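Thread: quick sanity check before group meeting

JM: Hey all, I'm pulling together slides for Thursday and realized we never actually wrote out the predicted structure for the chain we discussed last week. Dropping the sequence here so it's in one place. If anyone has concerns about the input, flag it before I start.
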Amino acid sequence: MLIILLVCVAVQACSESKFDYRHKYVGEFDFQIAYSGLDGISSQDTIRRNAPGTVDFGPTKGQLTISCAPADFPVLDLDLDVNKHGALKLGSEPEFSGRFLTKDSLQFSLMINTPTFSSYRMDVLAVRD
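JM (edit): ok, ran it. Output follows.
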């Protein structure tokens, strides 16, 4: 009886991780980030940065962590909810929209308010390495 229980637990643990829909999105990506609306820069101007980064399993089920470190800008480290269709959500943040275009690319936009830059828009396109 104990052996059957252990086998059932092992199969269940493997099946949860193996068939987790987030697996197809996890990996290394090249991030292209466009910043616009920064203080001291015309609203027509955009600063672009490229940076390597990762998409990994998030801290809770149904989340992914997106991380990259563009030069001269804060590290991007977001825990995003992702559904089975690739739609991304940042908690209850109304200024965020994003999705996986394919399993190998994602796109999102976010308005950021900080004491340093007041507010700016960040548009991100990431493609798997």
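AS: nice. The CA atoms of residues 86 and 102 lie 8 Å apart. The first strand starts at residue 27 and ends at 36.
JM: adding both to the slides.
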